[in-house]
Structure prediction request, 958 residues.
Amino acid sequence: MKASVIVFPGSNCDRDVQVALASAIGGTPDTVEMVWHGDSEMAKTDLIVLPGGFSYGDYLRSGAMSARSPVMREVVARAEQGVAVLGICNGFQVLTEAGLLPGALLPNAGLKFVCRDVQIRVENSQTLFTNGYQQGQTLRIPVAHHDGQYFVEPETLAEMRERDQIAFRYCDADDGRAANPNGSIDDIAGVFNDRKSVLGLMPHPERAADAIHGGTDGQGLLNSLVSALS
Amino acid sequence: MRNEPTITPEQVAEHGLTEDEYQTILNVLGREPNLTELGIFSVMWSEHCSYKSSKVWLKTLPTEAPWVICGPGENAGVVDIGDGKAAIFKMESHNHPSFIEPYQGAATGVGGILRDVFTMGARPIANMNALRFGAPEDDKTRHLVSGVVAGIGGYGNCVGVPTVGGEVNFDPAYNGNILVNAMTVGLADADRIFYSAAAGIGNPVVYVGSKTGRDGIHGATMASAEFDDATEEKRPTVQVGDPFTEKLLIEACLELMATDTIVAIQDMGAAGLTCSSVEMADKGGVGFDLDIDKVPQREAGMTPYEVMLSESQERMLIVLRPGTEAQAQAIFDKWQLDFAVVGHVSDSGRFTGRVAGEVVFDIPVRPLVEESPEYERPWVEPKAPAALAPVTAAMEHMAALKSLLAGPHLSSRRWVWEQYDQTVMADTVRKPGGDAAIVRIHGSDRGLAIATDCTPRYCRAEPRQGGAQAVAEVWRNITSVGARPLAITDCLNFGNPERPEIMGEFVGCIQGMGEACRTLDFPVVSGNVSLYNETHGQAILPTPAIGGIGVLDDLERHADLALRRDGDNLILIGETAGHLGQTIYLRQLLNRGDGPPPPVDLTVERRNGDFVRALIAAGRVDTCHDLSDGGLLVAAAEMAMAGDTGLDLNGPEDAGFWFGEDQGRYLLAVPEADTAEILQLAEQQQVPAQSVGRTGGEALTLNAGAPISLAELRRAHEAWLPDYMRND
Prediction:
């Protein structure tokens, strides 16, 4: 499997996801190609990852400027051809801004940055991103964001439910606090596009992918991709 | 030289210079300075940049060890951590700006300390902080906590460096003068360290990063004065941070550092372009000739005075090898950062600036640095505290515990930490909340342990003990995760050094720190001094904040505080005399602040710590917590809550045993099968050890009294800060 990570100015989880993906593939970090945002061409690849961070400082609006960078025209074209695209955190924001995923990510309901472990439930395990999980399985994965409140119009949400586009929902906080850390509509933590080839999610699977992280529940997502795309 | 109006005595005073200092300037120049030159002297000779009141004493601190690569004097300290790697770290204050404008003050504090570290060739891998606010009841405290925490998070989160820990304290002594001390730890190859000494006559001097604006002019001078009612008017002297640019600057500088183009590099921090130029030239024994016109400027019409004194953020100064300009510029173009050759290294030994070819300042470098004032300020020996008056227990011990855990001093700081990205870079092993944070050394199975600490109320009561205790506690924190302590950075926050009693506190703390550093082999490799932390003549508590690092040779073998098994014995290591003077118990529950602080016996501290560390390194202990604020019962409760495992505790009935803050102590949780042998080992090494409880269940019980459930304790512990901040 060939995977590429897009690096925007201000991306800061690019190396993290590169390391985690390479480990899932079973290679050294340079197995995963890093693609600079200013490039308008990209080698053939099976998976494109938009990493977390503060691309372009998140000035204007989170993800808004990145969505209009040269490389994103290519990403959109590849996504239309069916190439798998994964957006994590800031990458999720970019995907909604670029129109590859429905909805938008607003500032957290608490108006503060929130970094903590959350529990999320796998809502659709029949996809190339989630085939390694059980339907309904609960995962413990950290979030770290200021603008993670997912919002979508009720009519669109109804359609998304019908088409199994909800990937993950926040659930079952085990420390007595609200499960939903940011006020997302319908407790949504991650969504697919209609054909389930694009996934955006706020939690960081690459930060729960190694025993030293204190949990490896994120590893399943990366392993799913490797088994589906290799 | 351009003609400018004559300098008036008022201008001299406005620049914070004394008459004697001005006379020295006249002697150095052999003529009157112009305004730009006066500004340059004033920032270079400010307390903040010259350390004029503290230098004499700082020289007494131990700074060497076989593993120290670079001690104080460079941008940060450098320590060999094995495997060809070096840790580069420093802690710095941003107190005055943070009180005036909490978000930007704290944010730019983080930005500044990051630059001090990456300018030496390190990728920053962890941020820490030490924050001290006024009383919770004070009108401003909530607003300041909110702004400072958001500012630290806003900057560090965007730059993508995890904030892995820190401290938050409240005391009325900080009402008019909060402390924001930020620390960064970076990782570099031990043979790729970059220094600031300029060299090579004719080599280009290059400016990179953000443009220069009118912000932060005179920040260094402000940071060297007391506050009064006009403080609010100083807001324009606070800099504004742009963490996005900083992130680009980190990546661009590290990319440049991988090439063979850099002779010397230095960030522009306090006193901006002036201080960085002068330090680089002085260290290299050369002159700097600058074209002020070529400095990238944010607005038109800036005077040389403004350009030279601006403290605009996210800027660096580099001396390049000749002919490498194009190669270097390509990197900064890629990262969309300004790049400008602004001058060259000269053999004149002078710091010269020109506008349109005309000289606008011209100062000999050596005297500008070496003739800077150095004062042996008069000081008085602090009065020894009176003996502790008899103490009657405030209430039943378990009620006291719950009250302490639910109070401002010992309540959970989770509300703070959750605003910091603690896990970006994916190498965080132990997050905030333990004795020391642990980050993995990227790509290896080894780790760095990092801790910050200081107990200012001990320092006020008996500065020498307080200074020693601050160093010892950091050493203990690092030890209790199993790491080998290596070195410290210090951030010395005190009041007005012109008052002999304040200078006495400073001297006492330094003496105590020095003793602890020597006995514990824990040298000082970097630091910063912040004086004049006073408002209306009221000084803060003496606060020598210490940040320390240690190395873990095998991440598999580290300890944390969470109880993890039922049926373990809780072993107390160290002597418990029941010392209640200056404790949190006394202060919060009895509203008393009397008695001496707990004595620090450094030999015992070392013996006990070495014993504990060896057990962890041998894989025989995985659960350990050091005893500090609140004493034994608080530490035991923290272990129980962290591991969601109950405890049945047994011991004497006196409050001193359960709440005393005797030093050099740890709690270990040890399986029953290993207990006898560990106690025997302790006896052989003359380390006091006794069993004080057993793990199991879901509650805390003391001497067979009524149990208190962990859920109830946790609720109390977690509630205070979010409740307090609810209306911010």
